[in-house]
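User: Can you write out an input/output pair for a complex, sequences first and structure second?

Assistant: Here is one pair. Inputs:
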Amino acid sequence: MLYREAGDFKTSYAADNQTFPIRFDRYGYYLVLAFAFLVMPMVISDYWANSIVIPFLIYAIAALGLNILIGYCGQLSLGTGAFMAVGAYACYKLMVAMPGLNIVFVVVLAGLVTAAVGTLFGLPSLRIKGFYLAVATLAAQFFLIWLFTRTPWFFNYSSTGMISAPTRTLFGYPVTGPSASAVSVYLVCLSFLVVMAWLARNLTRGTIGRKWMAIRDMDIAAEIIGVNPMRAKLSAFAVSSFLIGVSGALFFAVYLGAAEAGEAFGIDKSFLVLFMVIVGGLGSILGAFLGAAFLIVGPVLLKMLLVNQFDWSSDLAAHLEVMIIGALILAFLIIEPHGLAALWRTIKEKLRLWPFPH
Amino acid sequence: MPDTLLFAMEAALNGLTAGIMYALVALGFVLIFKASGIFNFSQGVMALFAALTLVGFQQGQVPFAHLINAIFGTRVHHFGWNLPTLLAIPATVGVMVVFAWAVERFVLRHLVNQKPIILFMATIGLAYFLEGLGDLMWGAEVKRLDVGIPQGMSGAVDDLTFGLFGYGFYMDTLDLYAMVIAALLVAVLVLFSQYTKEGRALRAVADDHQAALSVGISLRFIWVLTWSIAGIVALVAGIMWGAKSGVQFSLSLIALKALPVLILGGFTSIPGAIVGGLIIGVGEKLFDFFMQPIVGGATENWFAYMLALVFLLFRPQGLFGEKIIERV
């Protein structure tokens, strides 16, 4: 039957703790994976890949990262854009310095560099919290972007101040640079997203994730029961920055191809990813996916509707979009502070009991 | 006197005038934070919105003209009359009061008892909403705001400093007026909170919500009142900034600069907001002046935040704030 268990027959801790306890869910997950890896590459068109699917995959990684920091560990960060820039510039410098290195390792190394920088800027979180910390991360945002636009070493003294990704291949197919096809880019981003989501899910349900949540729920109590706040907070900053750095590296290397720090990774990127986390659901892996999908697909659909159907001017549509996003944030915070993921959870509970809810 | 010192002094003087703008925005933050414990991120956008509304009223623009034209295919733009500034300012204040009421009715009332961080994120949403609304209502192009304050180089300052040092400092007359108006505004606010019934109620709420409720003060009224006052402060800031560099989106970015100002001055202190604003304004100009040969320009973008960051590590409650921060 649809969405049904015959009863609670779990006999082991592992069975109780599995990610998809409902069989229907589990098969659905395998089906989605198979569809994404096998069917999508056949049917996807360049337009859809570049305007919706690839940005969704990349932003979902960033939203996963920020969700670990805000949703699981309760530390507000407004520096996401700058950390994505760190990933992008680290990726660029590594690509240029080591042309023989496989692109996958380059992206992972870029993530590690970002993790180090993120931990550094996470240090103030040991003394301050809340919006004080938000200001500290704003310092990271503005300082790092300034550094990347002003220090010629970072963009290899190019006259435009832009960084552009050279062509790199994976299994013989180019995945970066102008000759990369949409399908190979899609597959690279998808593989990274799946691995990162697996990583995030398993970190957050293990010891370290529980420490983060203890810190989030009440830091003093967490310290009393033996959670080391320094390690918990800094590890959250490190893991979160790693994911954000990977997404920044992908965003630059395989999606944009060429970028300039101030334009591609400004403060609006920080807010965009923050909104994804809020709309999707704080403290939920699924929420990061839902939020990224909502905020990537929503504006595209709205623009198609208003500009193409009703013939509005595009800046008018853009203003309406900003207004709607703002109203949505307010609506979500008021009606459902746990976001789309909580809505899905409610539906699931109802489905499991249907048609005998009592 | 050596030239470098004179130039540095001129930079500091210009920083002082920029600092007044930061202080004005920070003032709105402090008012709302004291009364409702909400860190209002949308203060800068409120200044932008107020300035846009003022210009719209002055020029007799039809609100939502672009939207109406897009939906109904009409071609309306202006009513064809211009409101005098003296009428347009009270009308704008009216709009800000309606906005304050709407914020209380549709947002704050539903978020009572939420964590501060949720409220903070709600005000980020509010900022986006208001930014879209302002652009939709009045159009997004850069507008000139003229409320009759004289502009241009101030002859008096030039003469005075030339007499003193043999080198005339450049200073805009507008900035002199801004200083006077900011001082007046603070004086009026202090008088209001000390000597009127509503002002006392406001301070009572700031001290303790529950105690204020139990002696019969309406929290909702106080919230509408504070947000209205913050709206008026935003209007003043919007007029000053708009007259100086045109009404445009960058106006809302000064809200971000107000964050370090608050950290320096303390979140709950009105004098702190003023002093913090001045320190940041002077500090970033001087830092840029001295560091430009070494690291290149545009350090103004991040200096304030870095200063706040360093400050946080040593004195988290700010210069004048109450010491309530718990260490973990």
